[in-house]
Amino acid sequence: MLSAADVSWGRSKGGLMWAPDTAHVDDTYYFYFPHPTGNDDWNSTWRIGVATSKKPTLDFTCKDDGYVKMKDGSPYVTKIDPCIFKDDDGSYYLYTGGGSKCYVAKLCSDMQTLAEDPVEIDETLEDFH
Fold this sequence. Notes:
The protein is mainly β and 129 residues long. It has strands at residues 21-25, 28-36, 46-53, 80-86, 92-98, 101-106, 119-120. The protein has a single domain (4-120), classed as Tachylectin-2, Chain A.
């Protein structure tokens, strides 16, 4: 579907695209994957990548700015393990986590920009993935 080498903004050593998730909206498939930007201190540089395709298993591309962004357009630097949830009202939410943290935020219709600041949803977690 997609290789780390296809992610221009990702770490040059590649790899680390664990625990992805997908969503299908209208005629587009969205592939969400965790990927760091740094080579040495990569654990504090995670972004959630967004690649798109018209097919469910082929031809995914990740643009140079193909990652989840905050409302102001800055990168959402986060934890790992993205999960997309579609609510009954048709809204989509992005969950991310890792370790003792889990965050959720509503996505805009572009499926790449957060419509709100992420909220930590559970402060009692010890090893969430």
